[in-house]
From TrEMBL:
Residues 195-278 form the DHH-CID domain. Coiled coil: none annotated. InterPro entries: DHH_CID, DHH_sf, DHHA1_dom, SSDNA_exonuclease_RecJ. Residues 364-465 form the DHHA1 domain. Signal peptide: none annotated. The lineage of its organism: Archaea, Methanobacteriati, Methanobacteriota, Stenosarchaea group, Halobacteria. GO terms for molecular function: nucleic acid binding. It comes from Halorutilus salinus. This is DHH family phosphoesterase.
Length: 468
């Protein structure tokens, strides 16, 4: 059974010991699903331990943030889901930092209150998220045996939001978080269909929108999706309303899953790809069935749609338990987000992509917000103008400062052939004086405006090397 490293736990206890007595504490966290859940976990644990604190968010922690914190005169600052990357700078400032992060530390510098799985041989990109790290801290804040185990549910939402469930489920130290959540009765982990929207989507939409694994005749095919339900012998409506996955009995779920598998086999979909239709799913048992919050993946999407529109406050309140105003506002933001995504995908369909030998790209200028252009790049695989055999590179203007935001997405089968977009983005952006990184299947970069052409040429060459 997977266990957490003793040194890591000890470090968490040291951090917790300091925080318990901290005066004038600021909690600052990253604006994304993992950062919001990190803050939710940490702030709840601090509340329970009676530690007063203020909470703030930032897109990317920089000197300006640190200046602001210093000016505000906080004695102690807890950084979650970022901080390790500029630890050197943080350590020079006039406050005591506690850093709970899972990103690559920029320095070998020792810091007393630096809690990062990477320092203890736990892979921070796949085995523990920022929220998981905050959870380990939160558990330590409760004392020796640690309670706060109910916060594991939120930590799992963060891990899923950080795409650490690639390959059929969470792994490594994340497994410990899952296990403790299950033991605390707040989480259910089980093998199920991996399609997005099991809690909230009408069955035909659930099937129609399944594009991670492209199911011929069903994905992006509304009539085909309804037909499949009939073929499977699953009643699609109840009292005139569409049923959702969550409304189905175990038997019905099996029937439908089998029908999907058969459909794939009939159409010659690769068996390794078919297997990816099923994996470990995480249900938050204390949330109402049929709501976004009940499913880790839908919950993280809801949070992302607050974060991407600069409404971290709304997502954070939901993480802290607000199920009234904040939840209603988050849902409104999600609706707006979906609208923007639809418009963005339509834009790609209307304007098409430029195909190169090994990649394809589009530059949305200011037509698509830089915060969602990556999602749209991924979704654009459903458009007939986009080639599923090549990665998609998307560009958008960054409002403030003459920079271009780059987002890249690929299919799982490209990754199996050797594609690693994190490497591509990091290597090619530094070649033009930018900065980038991410995951093998989804990565991003920021490059100077005017370097788009040079950048894509570079990308095309590097991708060729990787998949040849
Ligand atoms: Mn993170």
């Amino acid at each position: 059974m997977e266990e957490l490293d003793d040194g890591f736990l000890e470090r968490a206890h040291d951090c917790a010991g300091f925080l318990r007595d901290a005066d004038d504490l600021l909690l600052i966290s990253h604006i994304d699903a993992d950062g919001l859940t990190s803050a939710g976990v940490a702030s709840t644990a601090l509340d329970r331990a009676g530690v007063e604190h203020e909470t703030r968010f930032s897109k990317q922690l920089d000197d300006e943030d640190l200046d602001g914190i210093e000016e505000a005169g906080h004695d102690a600052v807890l950084f979650t889901d970022f901080g390790s990357g500029i630890l050197d700078e943080v350590l020079t400032r006039n406050f005591t930092p506690v850093v709970a992060d899972h990103h690559q530390p920029a320095t070998d510098a020792e810091a007393e209150y630096h809690l990062n799985p990477l320092l203890f041989d736990i892979d921070g990109s796949s085995e523990l998220s920022g929220a998981g790290t905050a959870y380990v801290l939160g558990r330590a804040l409760e004392g020796e045996d640690g309670n706060n185990r109910d916060l594991a549910a939120l930590a799992v939402v963060g891990a899923v939001g950080d795409m650490q469930n690639q390959g059929g489920g969470l792994s490594g130290a994340n497994k410990v978080v899952v296990r403790e959540g299950v033991e605390a009765g707040v989480l259910e982990a089980k093998q199920d269909l991996l399609l997005f929207g099991r809690q909230t989507r009408a069955l035909p939409k659930l099937l129609e929108y399944s594009t991670d694994v492209f199911i011929p005749g069903v994905s992006k095919n509304s009539a085909g999706a309804k037909e499949l339900l009939e073929e499977a012998g699953v009643e699609a409506k109840e009292d005139g309303n569409w049923r959702r996955w969550v409304d189905l009995s175990e038997d019905e779920r099996r029937l439908l899953t089998n029908a999907l598998f058969s459909k794939c086999v009939e159409n010659g979909v690769d068996s390794s790809e078919i297997e990816e239709l099923v994996g470990e799913t995480y249900t938050l048992l204390e949330e109402k069935p049929g709501t976004e919050l009940r499913d880790a993946s839908e919950f993280s999407t809801l949070l992302n749609s607050t974060a991407r529109y600069d409404r971290a406050d709304v997502g954070f309140s939901v993480c802290k338990g607000d199920r009234d105003e904040a939840l209603a506002e988050a849902r409104e933001l999600l609706r707006g987000h979906r609208r923007n995504l639809r418009n963005g995908v339509e834009y790609v369909g209307d304007n098409g992509v430029t195909e190169m030998d090994n990649v394809q790209y589009f530059d949305a200028g200011d037509e698509i917000q830089d915060t969602i252009v990556g999602i749209i790049a991924g979704m654009s695989y459903s458009k007939s103008c986009v080639n599923r055999g090549k990665p998609v590179i998307a560009f958008a203007d960054v409002e403030e400062d003459g920079e271009k935001k780059v987002s890249s997405r690929a299919t799982k089968s490209l990754v199996r052939r050797g594609l690693n977009l994190a490497e591509v983005m990091s290597e090619c952006s530094s070649a033009v004086g930018g900065d980038g990184g991410g995951h093998d299947i989804a990565a991003g970069a920021t490059i100077p405006e005017g370097s788009v052409k040079e950048f894509v040429d570079e990308v095309d060459a590097v991708v060729e090397e990787q998949i040849s």
